[in-house]
Amino acid sequence: MGPAEGAVSPEALELLAQLGVRWVATDGGILARTLGRPPSFAELYRPWRLRLGPQEIFVFFRDTLLSNLLSFEYGKWPWEKAVEDFLARVYGNCSGWTEKAPPLLVIAMDGENAWDHYERNGRPFLLGLYWAIQEHFQPITLSAYLSRYGWGGELSTIWSGSWIDADFRTWIGEPLQNRAWAALADARDAAQASSDPERKAKAFEHLYICEGSDWFWWRSSKNPTPLFPHFARLFRAHLAQAWKELGKAPPADLETL
């Protein structure tokens, strides 16, 4: 699976492994932080087996540069030049490949955000890119690659972070964000302690919504938006409703979030 925002941690991946998830895909920056150095393309373009106690899960790492070129840069280019550049970079990255298994390039990006910036919503570029991929490369799903070729390296831990700078600072760390997280944690603790299964389940329906990444994304000073008051109001409403489902009055300071 591809976790939201490419976010991973040892604790989260251990839970996913327990639930039967076989693999996740995250950012190449996570591999660099885990290894303590920039990975080679031979290390980046292969899956890794991550052992966490009795659990194991396989991890794929996206090519951050190529993914970001698709997301943020190629839309400014003539589509033919963009396709040509993509092919040249892939061939350059894989030149002199000596590994037994073929290289696996993972592209991961927000599926909907980039195309408004491309000519005709990306149609000429995507058609050109897909034709080029069919002609020059072998598309394959991550599950199929893993079944056919196995993994290429072993990890005993993994860096905690997302596909934005290999950390979580987009969603936590600023005063307004930290206050919102604290309020959410208080409500979650109260729900977890509830002895009424029905009330607990209804409260968690709202808490799971509050745990979505968008609320905290828009609380960051790096992502200003005139729509923030609407996001804040919805967040407060769900948090307040969680308390009400538990039969308790929402804290008065919720209105200041």
Q: How many runs of DSSP E, i.e. beta strands?
A: 4
Q: Measured on Cα atoms, how large is the radius of gyration?
A: 21 Å
Shape: globular
Give the CATH level 1 class of the largest domain: Alpha Beta
Which spans of ≥5 residues are poorly predicted at pLDDT below 50? none
- Biggest β-sheet: count, sense, barrel? 4 strands, mixed
- Could you say what the CATH topology of the largest domain is called? 7-stranded beta/alpha barrel
Estimated helix fraction:
40-55%
% residues in beta strands: 5-15%
Strand order of the biggest β-sheet: 1-3-2-4
SSE topology string = HEHHEEHHHHEHHHH
CATH architecture of the largest domain, by name, is Alpha-Beta Barrel
Q: Taking all residues together, what is the mean pLDDT?
A: 97
Structural class: alpha/beta
The total count of helices amounts to 11
**Number of separate domains:** 2
- Quote the distance from N terminus to C terminus: 33 Å
Structure explained in plain terms:
It is a single chain. The chain is of the alpha/beta class. The protein folds into 2 domains: 4-155, 7-stranded beta/alpha barrel (Alpha-Beta Barrel); 175-256, no CATH class. The protein contains 11 helices and 4 strands. The chain has helices spanning 10-18, 28-35, 41-44, 64-73, 79-94, 123-136, 142-149, 175-193, 197-210, 213-217, 228-245; strands spanning 23-27, 48-52, 55-62, 153-155. Strands 1-3-2-4 form a 4-stranded mixed sheet. Strand 2 and strand 3 (55-62) form a beta hairpin. Helix 5 runs parallel beside helix 6, helix 8 runs antiparallel to helix 9 (197-210) and helix 9 packs antiparallel against helix 11. The mean pLDDT is 97.
